[in-house]
Amino acid sequence: QVQLVESGGGLVQAGDSLRLSCAASGRSFSRYSVGWFRQAPGKEREFVVVISQSGTYTNYADSVKGRFTISRDNVKNTVYLQMNSLRLEDTAVYYCAASEYRASATPRSYDYWGQGTQVTVSS
After folding, report:
1. How far apart are CA 106 and CA 92, in angstroms?
2. Quick one: which of 55, 90, 115, 118 has the most CB atoms within 10 Å?
3. What is the 3-state secondary structure (H, E, C) of 67-95?
């Protein structure tokens, strides 16, 4: 089992950057693929990006390609999401999630979820 805690959210202006962290507790963090999802008010949760267990495979939603970068440090049990050139439409609660199976863009593939961190982008 793994527990996830997100941090790093905040209020920024359009064009700014933020780095989110997803810290995991529990052993064998390297067994888990980790995804980031986001949910804006009144909208369904949507896929942002996923990284494989080893970090060699990543998959990004088209809306964030070229602006967001995911990485992981399996020694520190942490996954990072670097978000650059933030836009108003990036405003959402961001969740990280872990799965023991292959990297997936589907929320139901994930067994473990963090509590979320709010990202608000203003004009």
Report:
1. 18
2. 90
3. CEEEEEECCCCEEEEEECCCCHHHCEEEE
